[in-house]
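ok so I'm stuck.
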Amino acid sequence: MNLLAPLLALYTTTTLTPPSPLPTPPNNYTTINFDHLPAPHGLSPLPTPHHNLLFTHSTLLTPSSPSLHGLISPNDLNCAVSAPASLLGSRPRADAEGASWAIYNATSMREEEGLQPWFTLHEFYVKPMDAPEEGEITVFVRGYRYDDGDGDGEEVLEWRVEFPRGFHRPFLVEMEKFSGRRWERVTKVVVEADFGVDALDWEVCVDDLVVQFFGVEVEGEDGGGGGGVGAQGVLKMGGEI
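replied:
not stuck anymore, here's the structure
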């Protein structure tokens, strides 16, 4: 497992100059992918920011790159839902947080782009990479909601999905459908995995994040979305996908 770990160490500490930001229409859905970013050797650091988000413990991955031949299982070449690239998330040490994406600069979003410093997460694709032959894999997702200073503190949304053993196609995580709650006014999302065999040694692919940003003139959604299982939920997949 973690055959890419030696290479990841080379590509997770460099800061790239971000390309010109793509226009984000206020109050509209945005699909964030990584296909237009260069990764000439199959792995590359992400620009900071990328679509107003800071991606941490994450690396740009082009699974079909000849440079990675022999390092990636043929069963993992489907990591990139929208080819050619996806995000490769990992945890560098046992006490570190998992892969995450978060609002990069709340002030510049408000003052320069006219956007609220939070977003609604609608869906994204996730796939365990280099899965072990035995045991189940659990992928955990946490969302940290915007603290509006009302004294209640920061609310954390939680959800997880369990994959049976074996290789999988990328799985579309539909947040409201599966968790029973709308993941709105979110400032940070963390994705972690437990491969069962070694809690430290894991990698997941993430692609095609569908988020929604809002203009500052819009007060936003009311934070509701009751029903279902509330802020916490789990999905157990019945067989390989």
